[in-house]
Amino acid sequence: MRLDEYFEEIERDERAERRQLAAEKSYAITDYLDDVETNFEQRVSDDALLGSTSPTIFVGRSSYPNVSTGMLSPVGHEERAADFETGGHWYDRDFSIEDVFQHRTGLVNTAKTTSVTNVADAWNGFLGTQREVAIADRPVDVEIGLDSSLDVDFSVSAGDVTSPTGPRARAESATLTENPHVPRPVKKTLEDDDWHAEGAMNYLYNRGFDVYDINTILSAGALGEGENRRLVPTRWSITAVDDTVGQFLRGQIRNATAVDKPELFYNEYLGNRFWILLAPGNWEFELVECKAPGSVWNPAPERGMILAADREGHEGRTSYVDETAGAYYAARLGVLEQLVERGRQASVLVVRHVTPDYWGPTGVWQVRESVRNAFDGESGTAESFGDALRQLEPQLPISLARLRRKSSLAAGVQSSLSAFGN
Predict the structure, then answer these.
(1) Do residues 371 and 350 make contact, with C-beta atoms less than 8 angstroms apart?
(2) 226-235: pLDDT as tens digits
(3) HSE (CB half, 13 Å, CA atoms) of 116?
């Protein structure tokens, strides 16, 4: 499909229209919080949280290497515990920002402070229970003893509610009330104390485990060489797994044939618009983010559109990105999965437009899933990379000239055209 026809088709995309949030920001989550608080207070006794089903864990990063680590449990919704775990199913069910916040505030975090080291053989007590929850392939029933009352202070104003979290309490003990089911590939990685964490991650990915499962196992200190195993803060583990699997996938297309012609894909979700341009050539990747005034990452209208960008060449990166953080690795993973599936390589430019409708941070999972699912739709094609950019310009929130000043890939096209003209 030619790009002009492709743009007309996008404008008629009813699914994208349904996903477009209302212009007036919604703070319905504030009404939900009162019900959450009441539910927790009714379910918690003086010294224990009974009948809890935990689908996942959380490891904090504050005060590292002595961190807060614990289990997350949707008290009162045990029969739907798996729904509360972040994953691609949130995208498949078309979660709104309110839906994400409701599921996050619906999880109670019962945690202890501990050192991230010396956890290789921690299979008993609180850390042992936490690890069993992390490596199980379904939510696990636990009983958690508390040494403090729950902090369920949800008294926030509408202007403050950008990233609400569930109640918190200091845990004294935790006990399994059922035998968790651990998949055989996970058992294999646990039993091999000489296996580097990177190899174990790629092994699990090749066995059909998604990155969401792998980063939870990594967080619990269950991967890597025995003496080097340690708890990994959840935020760090998410990026570590995206990066590690991404590097593995990039190696698979290193010598692949390039795509035949420029292809443009589009997706829109949670107030974020994504344009993904694949062009003939060796692997290169760049993410350019356009953060609109009034969006969560650019709340001051007087600042105008804020741009951020990071890139890598054929050999990849050797350092952490400077401007786009975890979104870079999440977007890159989605692109590489598609290229590996096709057995091709490409020079790739991803432009993310964070619109004012993105009024609260939901996490990089929405970047990963938006890019992954963009390839399910039809693509538009162009004669050249430069031609694709020129036709794309009217769809973007910035001019092509400004994009070229920020994007190395777009600037490279301009340089090549100028040299050819001379």
Answers:
(1) yes
(2) 888 999 999 9
(3) 21
